[in-house]
Amino acid sequence: DTGVSQDPRHKITKRGQNVTFRCDPISEHNRLYWYRQTLGQGPEFLTYFQNEAQLEKSRLLSDRFSAERPKGSFSTLEIQRTEQGDSAMYLCASSRGTGSNQPQHFGDGTRLSIL
Amino acid sequence: GENVEQHPSTLSVQEGDSAVIKCTYSDSASNYFPWYKQELGKRPQLIIDIRSNVGEKKDQRIAVTLNKTAKHFSLHITETQPEDSAVYFCAASMHNNNDMRFGAGTRLTVKP
Fold first, then answer.
1. Given A100, A105, A109, which is nearest B95 (Cβ)?
2. From the CA atom positions of chain A, what is the Rg in Å?
3. Inter-chain contact A42–B31, Cβ cutoff 8 Å?
């Protein structure tokens, strides 16, 4: 399967802990996006990369959230000092090209549960 | 920024009937409108998309229409089947913008 893969699928952690999620995009896709999805809502954009450059991060939910894509391939999303409100599905998507008007292909997501 | 509204939030149809889901957007510069299907516990899957240079696109039982003047677009599913049951999301984006804005979703139930 050459689709977008995310790891782990599920993460359960105690409030205050740090968590890191990984996303491997489709290999020829140079754009990578992170979204958050809560129950009953559509995906909410967080940040994106064009190759290794993070071109938008103002929509990250707080300074506890950070993302990296060091070599322009896989990406990680880190949440520090997790809070109850961080419980959600975190989705990664990738696309070709240099614009946002290209089809985005999603991974299965990481479901985060904060105890 | 762009705001996408989607209606209805839930839709129940009998197998074989048609289903229509509507979305409106606020930014006239938006030029790309995809539709995603998300089954419970699974990833959103792109089912069809349309760009602003066309008014309609069809793929077998699925079609999307776009009215740029009114800033709304719709998903049409004909001859619905139980496996069409899922949550459907519309979205809008533009080339020079950074993100894609999604609607809140429509839960479609197709009753056999």
1. A100
2. 13
3. no
